[in-house]
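Record pair follows.
FIRST:
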Amino acid sequence: MKTVITASGPRRLHVRNLCKGLALSAGLLLAQGAFAFADDYRLDVLDKLRIRVVEWQTAEGSVRDWSAISGDYAVGAAGQISLPLVGELPVSGKTTAEVAQEIGLRMQKLFALRDLPTASVELAQYRPIFVAGEVQTPGEYPFAPNMTVLKAISLGGGLRRDDTGQRFARDFIRADGDASVLVAERNRLLARRARLQAEIAEQDSIAMPKELDQAPEAAILLESETELMKSRDRRQTVQLKALADLKTLLQTEIASLDKKSETQTRQLSLVADDLKKVDSLAERGLTISSRKLTLEQRTADLQAALLDIDTATLKAKQDATKAAQDETNLINDWDATLAQEMQNTESELEAVTLKLETSRKLMSEALLQSADAGAMKRDASGADVTYVILREKDGRPTEIPATETTQILPGDVIKVGYNVAMR
């Protein structure tokens, strides 16, 4: 798209002067730029340009605005910009004035223009700078005119602050907290082990472990374990007493059934004798058959009762055997439980002891490193901050010593370090 401004008569001369004034302004922009070294500044990758092109048409006495070409352009990785209609234009290593002249010449040749178009090329955004080394936030930052090394470092958050001592302090506090928890856990396990040892030995009291002699909470721990031991002992005693009572009851029932069986056996013997006598009399016709029938019925009842007594006796003996077995199992299970708890306690105690030793080693290491860091900090109190600018020259990186007030250019890499004089 292009805009044409026409003029005639006296206005033609005015417009012509206006166009010359625009060309002069463009020249001033190229000469001055955005900072003092614009004439010497060479474009490179990541620079952004703002371009405007106008043409004074002498024959028509008008100004043509080439708005299709005007706009903002970034220098690509190949060091060139791509303009509509004009195409690819190499700009790396050139000044803005040279680029403007090249744009005008290309357009005049490409479109066979009588008058040379005037291009205004200015830097819209400079390529970034890079801050590295002993700064809080190294990285890429935008460039601004009149930027110095100190300003660039301020963009990176300033010099890196030494928090080594704080880190070691945090490590020590964390390890100390872990050690306190582990000590409490170890003391609790020691008290538990002492209680288990007393239960296995069937003792009435718990002996104080020598590892707990200096522990302030030892008395409380032993009192708690003693109460637990008494509670467990009472529960086992009640269970054993219940089984013992059941065995006694069953033995009494068995004895009673035995006596009842003896009585029933004597009665059955007497009835059997009567039945024999009645059979003898019945054969001689001296007694009635109803008496014989009554004795036979009595014999059957006694035999049935005797069989029930035998069955009840057998059931009571089975229950007594089971109660005795339950008593034995209860004692064996209790012994096995104590042995398993003792094994688990020893395993947990060993693990806690190892963790406690590790925490104490970490505490010692944190203290040692903190002391070393403090010594190094004191020894390095005469450290000097050094600044080096890494700049591309003739396609090769060059290191330039600098100070805080050294001016930097777009694309520079500022390296910050320490020159420590050890004493």
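SECOND:
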Amino acid sequence: MTAPPIARAGRWIESYDGAHGAMIDCSQAVPDHAPPAEFAERLAVTAASQEAARYGDILGDQALRAAYASHVSSLYRSEIAASRVAITAGCNQAFFAAMLGVAQAGDAVVLPAPWYFNHKMTLEMLGIEARVLPLQAETGFLPVPSDVEALIDDRCRALVLVSPNNPTGAVYPPDLLAELLDVCVRRSLTLVLDETYRDFLAPESGAPHRLFGSAAAREHLVSLYSFSKSYAIPGHRVGAMIAGSGFIAQMEKVIDCVQICAPRPTQAALPWAIPALADWRGDNRHEIAKRAGVFREETGRLDGWALQQIGAYFAYVRHPWRGLSAEAVAEALMRDLGVLVLPGSFFGPSQEDHLRIAFANVPVDRIRELARRLALGLAGGFRADDQPHATRTAHG
């Protein structure tokens, strides 16, 4: 790609003339609200402190590592020591560091498609082959363990999964994750599991998985997390990693060379926020679940559109314009209707019929407006076929 995908899509905004009202931005997973006032105040106070201006521990402030370890231990009902936690400058840095820890140039990593584009970009920058595992709508965009194993050879070092998934929203069942960890153990791979959106799963469904209770997890599992979405602080760049103590020791070297430490003010405020904002996070989770329900209802009324997967933050939909590139469709939706979504082609091969819609960014009334505008497209208000940069695909 000539530019990072979010930046590339953002350049389409200026083409919209405002004819349908304010634009509806469903392009990026960004909370549509600020953090709660007390948390914001604590962030401001810590940012002004002398201590926060200093370098911190490379693996993260001890108080945050302990608070996060305690939280995850409770959530997964499995004891996790603070020494197995590293705090990173966002989950993207956690993934970058993890890839440096599991593979080197010339190695391969199994990457399901559609994928999170920053994962693919990281592998490309590091000279690591992305061993593509195509996923299908018919199976809910979930991998089949035997298909994973068929891709593994002596160059493979890891399997990368995202659950709840970006871009599809698919939630990996605990039994499937256990099977995939077993594959990794049997074939001497590391399972790198990005759980950025786990806080938006319904708590009554239980722990997202049972992997931390496995003896093999210390050697074969790296779990990644982001505080950005759950705490409405994406600009503060704080993420986390859980792995075996030996792997974390290697991460200390990597993080020291990349950024030295994660931002200190947010690290200082989060140990309070993790327990104190539990109810606030729960309210946000319920609100997003309501938005998901409305999105299902509204898109179900749209002729030609197919909702193929939804969960946590994202919906993955099949658009009605066969034969037109997904990027041409997304660009025209912005230009003609003021709706910004991402084309499936940003997430891997064979995705031209799909769009990713970040519905969690949008209040219920705006989701209904979104559906109204998409219906206008089919009624003739959408000029995708006139899109000057449109490229026909092999679908015919």
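COMMENT: Residues 386-396 have pLDDT under 50 and may be disordered.
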